[in-house]
Amino acid sequence: MTRSHSPRSPLVQLGLAVLLAGGWSGVIGQAGAARAQGLGQIVRAVCLSAFENEVAQSGKRAPAGMADYACGCVADRIESGSSVDAARNICRQATARRYPI
Questions:
Q1: Measured between alpha carbons, how far is 24 from 22 in angstroms, rounded to an integer?
Q2: For residue 84, what are the contacts with CB-CB under 8 A and spacing of at least 6?
Q3: Which end of the chain is more exposed for a tag (fewer CB within 10 A), N or C?
């Protein structure tokens, strides 16, 4: 039997709320197509750091590949023009489906 965590679970949230702090929405909204790749790298780095902190605080161990999948999803969505909220929500759900821990 497979358990799935609520989208409110610390591991599923993956610390992506960090992207909403400090004006990220404005920065992302103003980024031009020429800067999208650089922005994606920044989003990925912030996300990975937040993910590691969330996992450490939860006392659990994330499955191999979970952080890369979740943060890659967020970066890709934002580079494709999604809002931070939309990227976070879609990727949180996709990660929970792929990694039902």
A1: 6
A2: 19, 20, 24, 25, 28, 78
A3: N
Q: What residue ranges of the chain have pLDDT lower than 50?
A: 1-7, 9-27, 30-31, 33-34, 36
Can you give the pLDDT at residue 17?
47
Amino acid at 44: R
The Cα-based distances of 35 to 30, 38, 43, 75 in angstroms read: 10, 5, 12, 13
Query: Which structure tokens are listed for 10?
Result: 């610390």
Percent of the chain at pLDDT above 90?
A: 43
Tokens matching residue 99: 């990694």
40-56 residue pLDDT tens: 899 999 999 988 998 89
Query: Quick check: 40 and 57 in contact, CB under 8 A?
Result: no
Alpha carbon distance 74, 89 (integer Å): 9
